[in-house]
Design the sequence.
């Protein structure tokens, strides 16, 4: 019972990651490698010193090569630490192309995705790809637990209903969207994708509603929103009704208008899923379509809803289709053919054109705000060029991180 149990899955790439040799991060006085650009120098130094070492050599999986470029940590006063890794993956002949950036959000199993799985995704995308892979934030100093940008205390999470009674946590959503925007500018990405499975799909909906201008394509697989239409008979949970339904309706009312600002949105779900309710995401999809959003609902076939094996056996919760939708051969026709077409239809970002994320609308100084309409302007709006209060520079510093990235950026500029 619960998402964590249904999401447990083998990590084929984990062994390769743990066996790699290591090297110390590059020593530079400022900015510190692996540190978000908005951190103060002393905060960045502290975060960098506690980060694990970076792998020395790239790893090859079939036709793809993957390299861990750097890793760092997001830290906030109201949420616990959230470590992240930035990978680069490419096939032969792709490294001279401008890349795409894919933000990957894991599920409630809280497991780090393996390198081999990232390489499989890169092979399906058929593009030079950087993967930004954060981990769900740890317990905050105020006692809050998190499902990405949804914070809840022990009482709110009774019976695993934090996704109903929790609140969207603005500080973490802001920091993660800022990190993504800066990484996209750093690697000169043509497009930015947000992808996640189950709780990660929940995070994709959160970020799309909070900072739609950061993303070009969103892919929420087996995701959900705040609140649910499910009942005890149709769900693995026992949500109180009509209260849980009212929370979902309010969530859609406030955030659907922001989600449609993401140029392309793929909602992937199985109708028989008893962990993440199909009717919930169907309502979000219909709301986006009613607002002229370019959203697409991809329904997982019934015989594939339990296709993932857990410890050698198949579950019957209808929530086990990670491999079918994202890694297996069938995912080419089911998802990636459409995803690649969407990338060709969305205009690429110009070099150095990604604006700094604009600050959210003024909110109360409480660390948590429930269902506030924090709509962000599109990235081509003049309003997004303003700097968030307290920023320490006029824009993202593309010279963050490994020296190799600075050299590649200069080479790309020279070729253009």
Sequence:
């Amino acid at each position: 019972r619960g998402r964590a149990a249904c999401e447990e899955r083998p990590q084929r790439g984990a062994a390769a990651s743990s066996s790699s040799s290591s090297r110390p991060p590059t020593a530079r006085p400022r900015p510190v490698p692996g540190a978000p650009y908005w951190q103060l120098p002393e905060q960045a130094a502290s975060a960098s010193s506690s980060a694990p070492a970076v792998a020395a050599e790239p790893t090859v999986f079939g036709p793809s090569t993957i390299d861990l470029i750097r890793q760092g940590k997001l830290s906030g006063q109201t949420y616990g630490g959230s470590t992240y890794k930035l990978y680069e993956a490419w096939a032969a002949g792709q490294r001279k192309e401008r890349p795409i950036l894919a933000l990957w959000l894991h599920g409630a199993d809280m497991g780090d995705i393996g390198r081999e799985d990232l390489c499989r995704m890169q092979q399906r995308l058929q593009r030079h790809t950087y993967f930004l892979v954060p981990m769900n934030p740890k317990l905050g100093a105020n006692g809050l637990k998190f499902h990405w940008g949804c914070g809840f205390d022990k009482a709110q999470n009774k019976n695993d209903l934090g996704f109903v009674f929790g609140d969207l946590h603005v500080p973490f959503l802001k920091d993660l969207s800022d990190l993504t925007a800066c990484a996209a500018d750093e690697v000169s990405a043509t497009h930015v994708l947000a992808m996640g499975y189950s709780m990660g799909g929940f995070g994709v909906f959160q970020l799309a509603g909070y900072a739609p201008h950061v993303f070009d394509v969103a892919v929420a697989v087996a995701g959900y929103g705040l609140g649910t239409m499910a009942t005890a008979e149709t769900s693995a949970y026992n949500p109180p009704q009509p209260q849980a339904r009212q929370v979902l309706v309010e969530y859609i009312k406030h955030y659907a208008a922001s989600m449609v600002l993401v140029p392309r949105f793929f909602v992937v779900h199985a109708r028989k899923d008893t962990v993440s309710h199909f009717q919930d995401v169907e309502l979000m999809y219909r709301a986006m379509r009613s607002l002229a959003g370019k959203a697409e609902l991809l329904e997982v076939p019934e015989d594939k809803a339990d296709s993932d094996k857990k410890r050698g056996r198949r579950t019957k919760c209808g929530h086990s289709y990670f491999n079918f939708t994202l890694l297996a051969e069938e995912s080419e026709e089911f998802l990636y053919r459409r995803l690649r077409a969407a990338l060709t239809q969305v205009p690429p970002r110009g070099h150095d054109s990604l604006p700094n994320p604009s600050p959210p609308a003024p909110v109360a100084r409480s660390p948590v705000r429930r269902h506030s309409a924090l709509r962000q302007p599109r990235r081509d709006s003049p309003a997004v060029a303003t700097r968030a209060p307290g920023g320490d520079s006029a824009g993202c510093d593309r010279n963050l991180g490994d020296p190799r990235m600075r050299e590649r950026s200069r080479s790309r500029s020279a070729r253009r």
Confidence is low (pLDDT under 50) at residues 9-52, 351-395, 397-401. The first strand starts at residue 22 and ends at 23. DSSP finds twelve helices and 16 strands in the chain.
